[in-house]
Amino acid sequence: MDRILERMGELGVVPVVVLERKEDAVPLAGAMKAGGIPCAEITLRTSAGLAAIEALAEQEDEDFLVGAGSVLTRENCRDAVAAGAKFIVSPGFNRRVVEYCIEREITVLPGCVTPTEITEALEMGLDTVKFFPAGTYGGLSAMKALAGPFPGIHFVPTGGVSEKNLAEYLKAPFVRAVGGSWLCTRGDIAAGRFAHITSLCRQAGEIKRKAEQV
């Protein structure tokens, strides 16, 4: 298995991060690492996204996994990889983005919510895709239905996942990990509430451990 996907599975949660200032990237990463989740999907929704990825990559922390989210185009993908992103996440399926990543052996999670999109992903050699927005597209029941005809597929559901339903998602055999924005909200980041973010990451880790024991 792809080592990055394996690591995501071990962590259970991939924090989805929207940063307004690149200066917040390093302290945020420290907070998440202290909470036991040394991973971040830095979205490209803001102008600070690429700079934040670069700031984290410059730390050369092999224990911290940094990737880029909201990657819409091949150009976005190229810039993110150049900045130091170790994985790429897209809200939808873009063949050019997937091809770029495969050619360079970069882990990629394209958004796939239909049988056609999943078929495309499998055809390109992928076995794990993003399922977004999970809450809108039927959540666990939809993924369970899709996992029937596609037994080799795994999902990283994002959107509508929180500490309240995290355990339920993680217990599903077809869920590799979940994407979670509740761990590091814009409000907490802007206010510098990094200790709270650490606490939320620890809580998520504890929920995962309990889910595995059932």
Helix content: 40-55%
Low-confidence stretches: none
| Global morphology | globular
Query: From N to C, what is the helix and strand string?
Result: HEHEHEHEHEHEHEHEHH
Find the structural class using helix and strand composition.
alpha/beta
Strand order of the largest sheet: 3-2-1-8
- Global mean pLDDT: 96
What can be said about the biggest beta sheet? 4 strands, parallel
The Rg value, from CA coordinates, equals 16 Å
Strand content: 5-15%
Question: What is the CA–CA distance across the termini?
Answer: 25 Å
Count of β-strands: 8
List the total number of helices.
10
What does this structure look like?
- With 214 residues, the chain is of the alpha/beta class.
- Helices cover 45% and strands 15% of the residues.
- It is built from 10 helices and 8 strands.
- The strands form 3 sheets. The protein has a 4-stranded parallel β-sheet. A two-stranded parallel ribbon has the order 4-5.
Question: What distinguishing features does this structure have?
Answer:
45% helix; 4-stranded parallel sheet; two-stranded parallel ribbon; alpha/beta; 214 residues; globular
